């Protein structure tokens, strides 16, 4: 009986283990990101020869985008379904039906942020002059003006000076719904040094709570539900990772 039970347990273990199988190994010359909220594109990779490669869910190539960048620069791409969902988008930065990508190119401490379309056309160069700048982007919908906007946290001068720029984006009814859906909880700048500005998700809540990574409540601030942006003083927080929560929505930010 014991032998039978052991054999059964071994068989069950073997079956469970067999369910995990390698499906795809990408080239060592590309950095791949999973695009979790897109119906057309499943993976995007940035290659060492400065191309963006778009993949289907079966790993077949949809398109290879040749990115025309200055000599000496390298291509970098980042995607996160919560904090940087707009790095792969449509109808957010342009009014046509082409996909748009937010990319970064780097050269010995010089970082340039660009928006390109699926044909490699540059829609916006946020840093046309070569400087030691770093750019953090946040897309949000301004309820008062009913326009989509982009706020950029710019760090420059050897990363000692920080300021913000706000851009108005091409706005349509389709893009409004997409921005509202994806930017339910957005904050800038992130990382933050002294003040964290949170876009009001308008979810009925009237306070924001900040927790450390252990789940301990660090601070709580009430706000007027009609406010578009909620400013929270985080200057006295220790450097590290935190969670901010409004109602049932939560997201992370970094204090530096």
From TrEMBL:
Domain Secretion system C-terminal sorting: 188-256
SUPFAM superfamilies linked: Peptidase/esterase 'gauge' domain
Signal sequence region: 1-18
Keywords: Signal
Entries under Pfam families matching the protein: Por_Secre_tail (PF18962)
UniProt superkingdom: Bacteria
NCBIfam families in UniProt: Por_Secre_tail
Entry protein name: T9SS type A sorting domain-containing protein
Lineage start: Bacteria, Pseudomonadati, Bacteroidota, Flavobacteriia, Flavobacteriales
């Amino acid at each position: 009986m014991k032998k039978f039970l052991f054999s059964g347990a071994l068989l069950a273990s073997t079956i469970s283990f067999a369910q995990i199988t390698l499906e795809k190994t990408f080239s060592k010359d590309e950095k791949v990101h999973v695009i979790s909220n897109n119906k057309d594109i499943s993976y995007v990779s940035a290659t060492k020869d400065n191309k963006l490669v778009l993949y289907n869910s079966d790993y077949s190539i949809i398109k290879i985008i040749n990115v025309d960048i200055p000599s000496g620069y390298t291509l970098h791409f980042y995607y996160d379904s919560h904090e940087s969902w707009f790095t792969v988008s449509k109808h957010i930065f342009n009014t046509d039906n082409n996909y748009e990508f937010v990319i970064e190119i780097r050269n010995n401490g010089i970082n340039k942020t660009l928006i390109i379309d699926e044909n490699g056309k540059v829609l916006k160069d946020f840093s046309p002059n070569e400087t030691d700048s770093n750019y953090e982007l946040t897309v949000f919908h301004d309820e008062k003006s009913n326009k989509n906007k982009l706020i950029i946290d710019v760090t420059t001068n050897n990363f000692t000076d920080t300021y913000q720029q706000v851009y108005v984006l091409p706005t349509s009814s389709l893009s409004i719904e997409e921005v509202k859906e994806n930017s339910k909880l957005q904050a800038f700048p992130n990382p933050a040094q002294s003040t964290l500005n949170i876009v009001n998700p308008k979810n009925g809540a009237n306070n924001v709570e900040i927790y450390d990574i252990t789940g301990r409540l660090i601070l709580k601030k009430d706000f007027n539900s009609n406010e578009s942006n909620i400013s929270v003083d985080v200057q006295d927080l220790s450097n590290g990772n935190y969670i901010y929560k409004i109602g049932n929505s939560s997201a992370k930010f970094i204090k530096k």
